[in-house]
Design goal:
alpha/beta, 12 helices, 60s Ribosomal Protein L30, Chain: A, Rossmann fold, 10-stranded mixed sheet, cell outer membrane, 35% helix, single chain
């Protein structure tokens, strides 16, 4: 064999490895995107639920179409994007596309526009591939999938799902599913267990299609849909996500999977006599530790800059009204905590108003509406990791087209 022939033989395994890494079905429109994500500040991870409840039936949610808005937003932010599917556990996450940078870097604007058009088509095709993959189990573990897939550092996690999980610590396979009190118990007991989405800390979570399963599943009642929204909103806040947007708005429908596809065990919801109100739009969840010193309503150094950056994010959503709510943990007197939460909310309101946001109001909730309902440990000491969830400032908004 000649030296050239030997070199070619030696090169074949390397080329095969590169082809596997890039994905043999990667379209040309994705060229130049893969492997450019290292060290980037922004990341968007998209997860598509392919479990039976979201797939089996004559019609099912058309997630690929519903995701296009969020993929466009990721390109606008120049994020590193990964798109995958999941069903019954963290190990079922399969990538249709991983770590693709959407930053257009051509010298001329007309060429950058072509790059962005290619990126959009690349992500769209990846979403279609993710949606088309069959389930590997007859279960759905939404929290576990988030933990397996969410990138390190700041970023956005978008999950297209009916929100009906049936395994992991957030499983709805319980005779109490449907009760708001049961949500409080889950939020207390789940952190640290399998299926708790701890990877959401500091990230933005968007869930779309919640409460909208395929028509092979009995449609949830209005009360059950509201329960699912509250479950995922409270879970998101307790996991200390930066923002929580849980949408129960109907998504477009498409063809469902064949009857031979895996079906999930049914989930039954019980009625709640007095369901508490929920925030229908996105909730921005700010940790008090990031903004204030202990027992103080004075903004810490750097907090005002962080709030101004948040104001820029809020402004892009075109709000017509914004509300700031302060919260504390249960230590100290109720009167003191109420006053502290009011002053902290007013301080945040002042910064947002100065940044030019319209109609910003504020109020203090004190120790009401806790995310931690087990304030003390069995040994009598304070349950600090749990109490930390309660020390927060929540920001909600109203926009022209609806709540969010």
């Amino acid at each position: 064999m000649t030296r050239a022939g030997a070199f070619a033989v030696a090169l074949l395994p390397l080329l095969g490895g590169l082809a596997a890494a890039c994905g043999s079905d990667a379209p040309d429109v994705c060229r130049g995107m893969a492997g450019r994500g290292a060290g980037q500040a922004g990341a968007t991870t998209v997860l598509v639920d392919v479990s039976g409840s979201a797939r089996v039936g004559r019609t099912a949610p058309a997630y690929a179409a519903a995701l296009e808005t969020y993929l466009d937003q990721a390109i606008g932010r120049e994020d590193v994007v990964s798109i995958g599917s999941f069903d019954g556990s963290a190990s079922t996450v399969r990538w249709a596309l991983q770590d693709h940078l959407t930053k257009a870097d051509a010298n001329r604007e007309e060429n950058r526009e072509k790059q962005r058009a290619n990126y959009k088509e690349c992500l769209k095709q990846a979403a279609v591939r993710a949606v088309s993959r069959p389930a590997q189990t007859d279960k759905s573990d939404i929290g576990g999938a988030i933990n397996a897939a969410a990138a390190d550092g700041p970023g956005t996690v978008v999950v297209a799902t009916d929100g009906i999980g049936n395994t992991g610590c957030l499983s709805l396979a319980s005779p109490s599913a449907g009760k708001s009190r049961w949500i409080d118990d889950l939020v207390d007991q789940c952190p640290g267990r399998d299926g708790w989405p701890s990877a959401l800390a500091g990230k933005n979570l968007v869930m779309l299609g919640v409460g909208q399963p395929a028509d092979g599943v009995p449609p949830p009642t209005t009360g059950s849909v509201e329960f699912l929204q509250r479950l995922w909103q409270r879970t998101c806040l307790a996991a200390r996500a930066r923002s929580c947007e849980i949408s129960t708005a109907p998504v477009a429908r498409g063809d469902g999977a064949a009857e031979t596809a895996r079906t999930d065990p049914p989930v039954t919801f019980v009625a709640d006599d007095e369901p508490p109100p929920i925030s229908p739009g996105p909730v921005f969840n700010l940790s008090s530790e990031e903004l204030f010193d202990l027992d103080s309503a004075d903004l810490r150094p750097g907090a005002e800059a962080r709030l101004r950056a948040l104001a820029d994010d809020l402004r892009r959503r075109d709000p017509i009204a914004i509300h700031v709510a302060g919260h504390t943990d249960s230590r100290g007197s109720a009167a003191h905590n109420l006053g502290l939460s009011q002053r902290r909310a007013a301080g945040v309101r002042a910064v947002l108003t100065a940044a030019g946001l319209p109609h910003v109001t504020s109020a203090g909730a004190g120790e009401a509406d806790p995310l931690c309902t087990t304030a003390t440990l069995p040994n009598g000491q304070w349950n600090e990791p749990c109490l930390q969830r309660d020390r927060r400032v929540e920001i909600t908004m109203k926009v022209k087209d609806g709540p969010a």
